[in-house]
Amino acid sequence: MQSFSDIISGYFDPELALLVVSMVPFIELRGGVVLGAALGFHWLEALVICIIGNVIPVPFVILFGRWILEYLGHTSLFGGVVRRYKAKVLSKSDVIHKYGPWGLMLFVGIPLPGTGAWSGSVLALLMDLRLKEAVPAILLGIVMAGVIMTLGSHGLLGIFQLM
User: Fold this and answer.
1) Taking the alpha carbons of 67, 124, 153, 37 in that order, is the dihedral positive or negative?
2) d(CA 85, CA 76)
3) Can you give the residue ranges of every domain in the chain?
């Protein structure tokens, strides 16, 4: 029986797999870092690839997400889902109101369900944050989440052993 890493490396370039997994909503960098550990990547290489993959969609979501949400929100198929998603994301906006971009960084950086670069980008666009404010905060949050996930995937002492 083939292992998961054999299947991935047999069909996909492993670096590309990490990059793409890190771009996927809800999986994002958190899944990419774990996949990188499973594929035997050096922790730093996996972290860098996952950060790049996770940050790629951010400006596009902020720039075009409003239009996409509005369009889908007016369809009978996705209207209810979009309304619930927007309400759920906006319910987490208190931290941004209180701390500004630092709150957005914390929202993205603490790896909990429903947080991450995609949700942070949607939150930034729904709160009308400017791109030059939102992108650096989200990037710092991605790095923060990446470090937390890397430590969790390899263990604190494991990082020093892998150096």
Assistant:
1) positive
2) 15
3) 4-162
